[in-house]
Amino acid sequence: MEYDFMVSQIRRKTSLTLDAEALDCAKELGVNVSAVAEAALVKAVAAARREKWLAENADAFAAQSDWHARNGHPLADIIAAPGGASWKS
Known about the structure:
By secondary structure, this protein is mainly α. The chain has 3 helices and no strands.
């Protein structure tokens, strides 16, 4: 399921069980618990997507790393970043 957090305006009611003291403090301080929960959820989903993508592509990353280890980087002669020389065979 794909979700674009930047364009969705649809809201759905849900029920959360939260620490009572934290909730009381948030209310006292005027913290918008829904906005905080939504921001945390967006961040958690992005992190989970990243981890899933990295896991799904781990074999490709390993194959690329192995190829570079055997052959060097095809652009090693023009890489100016620190460690550029390490790409050369």
